[in-house]
Amino acid sequence: MLRLYFLISLMGLVKSDTDETCPSFTKLSFHSAVVGTGLNVRLMLYTKRNETCAQVINSTDLGNLNVTKKTTFIIHGFRPTGSPPVWMENLVKGLLNVQEMNVVVVDWNRGATTVIYTHAFNKTRKVALILKEFIDQMLAKGASLDNIYMVGVSLGAHISGFVGEMYNGQLGRITGLDPAGPLFNGRPPQDRLDAGDAQFVDVIHSDTDALGYKEPLGNIDFYPNGGLDQPGCPKTIFGGVSKYFKCDHQMSVRLYLASLIKNCAITAYPCDSYRDYRNGKCVSCGTPQMMSCPLLGYYADKWKDYLRDRDPPMMKAFVDTAENEPFCIYHYFVDIVSWNKNVRRGVITIKLKDKNGNITESKIDHEPAAFHKYHQVSLLARFNQDLDKVAAISLLFSTGSVIGPKYKLRVLRMKLRSLTHPERPQLCRYDLVLVENVETFFQPILCPKLQV
Known about the structure:
By secondary structure, this protein is an alpha/beta fold. The protein has helices spanning about 1-10, 30-35, 90-100, 110, 115-120, 125-140, 155-165, 240-260, 275-280, 305-310, and strands at about 40-45, 55, 70-75, 100-110, 150-155, 175, 200-205, 220-225, 270, 315-320, 330-340, 345-355, 360-370, 375-385, 390-400, 410-420, 425-435, 440, 445. It folds into two domains: about 15-320, 3-Layer(aba) Sandwich (Rossmann fold); about 330-445, Lipoxygenase-1 (Sandwich), CATH 2.60.60. The protein has ten helices and 19 strands. Helix 6 (about 125-140) crosses helix 7 (about 155-165).
């Protein structure tokens, strides 16, 4: 029986295990990373017609690609273990859910898989040349550069930039997800992603102190949590070696994925520095004609026309995110007027509670606030839940002192106002005495409306 099966398989009547019904992303082993891989780029097309089963295409066969529709290229980065990106499938599905388009996964795992980063780095321009050859054929069939969108991760962000430069910045859009920093830091614009590589370039920086690029690269550069340590990621190597090295870097992808789900929008605030953002100095976008502040992720291009009129057409934007999906943070101002005779310095923790018992907390401790007599201090509070109707509030004041007397903060007036929903009524409370490190609960009342 085995001999018969062998003879039949030799005649091609039985499919081997290597035949793919649905082509999938190249999966390699760590052994491949050690010995190195030669470059081989595969382009895999997904559309609404074949959302879960890719079609392999190339510059001589565009397959089912509809050149009249938007085409989004997804370009991964360095793969030191050879494994497929864990986020790829979700990113393909997310893009196809928000808009009918062509999604082309650029699989250059044979080339990106190596333990020696410079080997992958040296192949980036070759990948870009292959993509240009493919796009040239798209254009010959009637496609428009306006409809070409590139989403590049790490090294893939710079590959996108190289392609864009070949078309003199006429690609519709490039999104760089934590563009790689090593070997790119300090290089001139032609040797990395740059704001001139497409009609609109947006960048999410999530690991600027390690694997990512620190300086602005696009028309709008988002720095979630300052672009450094991301909530939910280990702070030290003891939190898990692989997760420690990659978590902050890959958070840019997770945040972009969250933007494709419409249950919350991650709103960022144009600002010169993360410190100014945390201190509440950048809560106005300065554009009353705009519907909202810039949105991190897929819908960042709503600011395209506004940024085009700026000189230079570039902007940095900051936002804090929550530890868990969908990562949205809801911003409030806590205005405190104190009447202590002497200056009190410390931090405030505020909790909000609704009538259903839901509680959300914000610890405003990035730097101590100075409370002067009869002077209003406005603190930017960030909550990971959006409570529609606040029934109770608690405040806790701390100087950070472990020994010595407990200080008091005498509050003449506290006001809570939502930045996320400015139409909501503002809540007040008067004549409070906060004893250091003692949580004080109270029911707020509606603030009096200003007389016009």
